[in-house]
Amino acid sequence: MPSDRDDVERRIARLTKELDYLKGGLRLLGLQPCSCCGKYFLSSDGKNLFDAGELVCVQCLQTWWQQREPTLSIEARQAIEHKLARWLVAYHNAKFIRQAEKLPRAEMLAIKVVVACEQCNGTGKLANGSACRHCDGRGTVWVVELRPEFQ
Predict the structure, then answer these.
(1) Which end of the chain is more exposed for a tag (fewer CB within 10 A), N or C?
(2) Does 127 score more than 90 pLDDT?
(3) Are 113 and 96 in contact (CB under 8 A)?
(4) Where do runs of H (alpha helix) occur along the chain?
(5) Hey, which bits of the chain come out as E strands?
(6) Domain extent listing, the chain
């Protein structure tokens, strides 16, 4: 005679299988989960999830990037930074800020990410050796998205 434990294990196995079927159905409908929060988003237009080898929603982006960035090589980090900056500008009305004194107040920001300057490739210097004017020679710029109430 089966034990209560066997019955529970069979139920869990059945529920797990049903959940896998539901997830597969959501993917067929064009929905993908955020790798951080697990919420599903329509992925067909590209604005809901940032793809850097793992999908991340805009609500989880800041925390995800703070955890992910230190684990990357310089080349990999810069490649993702450039892609991230373009994604934020294209889909989330983000802006490049080149000077610290022009940064909005912290409470106004939904996202603030430091990225390597694309003009000097993060070196702070141009090919002729002069300081990059795009980043004021720092090699980095900020990409910020304002909270909706401040836009």
Answers:
(1) N
(2) no
(3) no
(4) 4-28, 61-68, 74-92
(5) 31-33, 40-42, 49-51, 55-57, 95-97, 109-116, 140-146
(6) 74-151
In the chain, the percentage of residues whose pLDDT exceeds 70 is 99
Question: Could you give the count of Cα atoms lying within 13 Å of 86 in the half-sphere of its Cβ?
Answer: 9
Phi-psi sector, 93: left (phi>0), alpha (psi -120 to 50), beta: left
pTM: predicted TM-score of the whole model, two decimal places: 0.80
Tokens matching residue 15? 């529920």
pLDDT digits (tens, 9 = 90+) for 61-107: 999 999 999 999 989 999 999 999 999 999 999 999 998 899 999 99
* Torsion angles phi and psi, residue 44, rounded to 5: -70, -30
pLDDT digit string, tens, across residues 45-61? 789 999 999 999 999 99
Distance (Å, whole) CA 112 – CA 83:
15
Here the tokens at position 92 are 């989330």
Closest by Cα among 144, 65, 140, 139 to 104: 144
Residue 130 is which amino acid? S
